[in-house]
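pasting for ref
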Amino acid sequence: MMDRKWDKVIIGIDPGTNVMGYGLIGVRGKQPSMIAMGVIRLSKFESHYLRLARIYERVLGLVEEFLPDEMAIEAPFFGKNVQSMLKLGRAQGVAMAAALSRQVPITEYEPRKIKMAITGNGAASKEQVREMLRRMLSIPTEDLIPELDSTDALAAALCHFYESQRPAVAKSTSWKDFIARHPDKLV
């Protein structure tokens, strides 16, 4: 077993059929840091099926290289073009299959939830998300790449880290359930 620098590694994926973003954060204690981020360029492949194969290969390669404990993936944004949504859903599914083939658990996040976790504004622009990530994770400006898909993916990973730090919310808040869980609190 390889000795790891991180207590936990989270891979984030921003699915796409032309460009797919990825970002990895490492957590030591309660401190997240960027490990890597980048994009998988797919526009050079004419066939949608070849693009899906490339997504699977690259995501599997990232999983095998960085050994993430968990994956956070951005849920598809529902637009008006059904064909685009179908292709995007396939790309997301193939990325998920690559992680699942190595038993990496997956959590999906809506784009607004990711933006809210990073900027405090669910309607924030991609540029605002990028700038907040740069500041929060102390990423040198020269380490950023032009494609915002990379920082969107990193944002998904950081959102997942924040969500995993939150205490679990009790499923029921009735007095009957509270008394059943805390009989010692009765006077």
